[in-house]
Design brief:
heterodimer, A: alpha/beta, Alpha-Beta Plaits, Rossmann fold, 6-stranded mixed beta sheet, 5-stranded antiparallel beta sheet, about 35% helix, B: about 260 residues, mainly alpha, globular
Chain lengths: ~350, ~260
């Protein structure tokens, strides 16, 4: 749960605050977000990646049972789920590193297996647990990888953009975790890809480095690259992704915008305020979407779904009551995640927190 | 993003491979395991052996001195250290650390990394052989092999055999320590039959017979013959060729890219 305090926020201002897109006030702008994501993802050329009925299992039953989804041009598409849910398997099949047992995958209209070199030419991949020789220099490895592509990005420019220029002559082994990740992103982008697959990018980074990495990912998208982001950090998916696919036990559990996903999972919004004058509970319980009213001393806590904040504030206004010290707690993707994976009997410990 | 016109079955640019070989050469210089073991160690042996007066006597049943007979043995030592240690360790390390995996995400196939390592180590072996043969001739009074074609064939087959064994170790070793153990375990018997510790003539008939059928026992015989001016006999050449083919095929069949 995230809590946003908006002091002195009265009825009239609620609409303005909602339009400003203050996080934690999901109800008013949920629709807007969903529409903008749809507009972006539908793009002008339709889906850029199509996965249909993907199945890939290994001896111990780990892997992917049945996964289907599309990724639109210019989208940041998130894949989240607990450990062992099948996230790496899914992206490894897309990048052609693994051969699916069954199902069809199309990447830019190409088959990752049959058109191996052509797919790799256009898809940049940053893999979990992949390393470089310890004594290779930053500049060297970028120049080397650039030589593998037909139309590579300029290594010097990329180093500049990712703040690696000063580390040009530094050995890989001397780089900090954050710099290694930046180099890894640079290598995923060196081929001038149309799609970048980024797996567990911020695992093990300190909070500042995570935030910097997030900004980098947004820059990558702004360059016109479609991003497929694998993560098990909810805040990361919520912050970056246009759409999020939740997979669990090799199956798609949910696929929606982060806000939509939070809502779908039955996540509700809580509104706390101090009324300027007493009023009957009934004035609010009759409202659509309101599920519960609690009195906490002077303070009133309304729980509900949908467009809760503006509905309640409007009703209070009509009753001539002003809401003071308004606090809103919204359902987050975190809640949705826990709810959607909890039924499957996962240990809560598996949900990593930054 | 501009859409590039790339044929769907495009191959990665060939320039990438030459760049890779250049970078691998730099890495071989920065972490000079092969250079020290495969080149420096045999050359140090050569210098030390030259300082032992007893080795200046003619070898029994040969036109060469004992010292000159050590040159094929030191070539075998160099080939052993390069092919069984210098080649497998970096490739197995790269595979275990995920470098091969990182490569598989680019248009460059991971086999390029292996090929580059083979080229670098072949170059090291060539450097070592040239230093041993030319150095022996220039500074220590050993005659250049008079049957040079036979010598070249022997060296080529010995190199192919040892690299095939090294590639098999590379193929099956799960981790660098495993590769290290496999290499060392093979190194001693191979070099024993090459005559590093005692010349072949001093061995019992049974051991001599076994030695004839080991890769380096055969290699020393053929190089020795060529240094004395004779073209090597067919049997030791065939022994080496057979090892090279069998181990080479096994390495290709068993190679693990992940």
């Amino acid at each position: 749960m995230i809590t946003v305090r908006i002091p002195g926020w009265h009825g009239q201002e609620s609409v303005a605050a909602g339009a400003l897109g203050i996080s934690g006030v999901p109800a008013p702008n949920e629709q807007v977000l969903r529409e903008s994501a749809t507009a972006r993802s539908s793009g002008n050329t339709g889906p850029i990646v199509t996965v249909d009925g993907l199945r890939k299992t290994y001896g111990k039953g780990v892997g992917v049972q049945d996964v289907s989804f599309c990724v639109g041009q210019g989208e940041i598409f998130g894949i989240i789920g607990p450990n062992g849910a099948g996230k790496p398997t899914t992206v490894e099949c897309i990048s052609g590193l693994r051969v699916p047992d069954s199902g069809a995958i199309s990447v830019l209209g190409l088959n990752p297996q049959a058109d191996r070199a052509a797919v790799r030419e256009r898809v940049g991949v940053q893999l979990q647990e992949s390393a470089l020789p310890l004594f290779i220099e930053v500049g060297e490895v970028l120049e080397l990888f650039a030589s593998f592509y037909r139309q590579p990005a300029d290594p010097a420019e990329l180093m500049e953009a990712l703040g690696l220029t000063a580390k040009r002559d530094t050995y890989f082994r001397r780089l900090s975790g954050g710099l290694k990740q930046r180099l890894s992103i640079a290598l995923a982008l060196i081929g001038n890809p149309q799609i970048a697959i980024l797996d567990e990018l911020t695992t093990g980074l300190d909070p500042q480095a995570r935030r910097d990495t997030w900004q980098l990912i947004e820059h990558v998208r702004d360059r016109g690259v479609t991003v497929i982001l694998v993560t098990h950090f909810m805040d990361e998916a919520e912050r970056l992704c246009d759409r999020v696919m939740l997979i669990d036990h090799g199956l798609v559990t949910a696929l929606d915008t982060p806000v939509g996903l939070a809502g779908h999972a039955g996540g509700s919004t809580h509104l706390r305020f101090v009324p300027s004058a007493p009023f009957p509970d009934q004035a609010l319980t009759v409202l659509p979407g309101v599920t519960e009213i609690e009195h906490e001393g002077q303070r009133i806590r309304v729980t509900g779904t949908g467009d809760l904040v503006s509905t309640v504030i409007r009703a209070l206004q009509a009753a001539g009551v002003e809401a003071r010290e308004v606090q809103v707690e919204s359902a987050t993707l975190d809640d949705a995640y826990v709810r959607l994976t909890h039924h499957a009997g996962h240990d809560r410990e598996e949900v990593l927190r930054p | 993003m501009t859409t590039h016109a790339i044929p769907s079955r495009a191959r990665p640019p060939a320039r990438g491979f030459t760049e890779l070989v250049k970078v691998e050469a730099k890495l071989a210089w920065r972490v000079p395991v092969g250079l020290v073991l495969g080149v420096l160690v045999p050359v140090i042996f050569l210098v030390i052996f030259n300082a032992i007066p007893a080795l200046k006597k003619p070898a029994t049943g040969s036109t060469l001195t004992l010292f000159a007979e050590y040159i094929p043995v030191l070539i075998c030592l160099s080939l052993c250290l390069i092919a069984l240690v210098g080649l497998p360790i970096p490739v197995v390390t790269n595979r275990q650390m995920g470098v091969l995996r990182r490569f598989s995400t680019t248009p460059a196939p991971p086999s390029w990394l292996l090929a580059a390592q083979v080229i670098i180590n072949l170059a090291l072996a060539l450097i070592a052989i040239v230093i041993l043969v030319a150095g022996g001739a220039l500074f220590f009074g050993v005659h250049l092999p008079s049957q040079w074609a036979g010598f070249a064939v022997s060296v080529l087959l010995a190199t192919a055999t040892m690299f095939a064994i090294g590639l098999l170790i590379t193929a099956v070793a799960a981790s660098p320590p495993v590769a290290g153990v496999l290499g060392t375990v093979l190194l001693y018997p191979l070099l024993f039959f090459a005559g590093l510790w005692t010349p072949e003539q001093n061995l019992s008939p049974l051991l001599q017979h076994i030695g004839n059928y080991t890769p380096l026992g055969a290699a020393v015989q053929t190089m020795d013959a060529a240094m004395q001016g004779n073209f090597p006999a067919a049997r030791p050449l065939l022994v080496m060729a057979a090892y090279a083919i069998v181990f080479g095929i096994a390495a290709i069949k068993l190679f693990r890219w992940e």
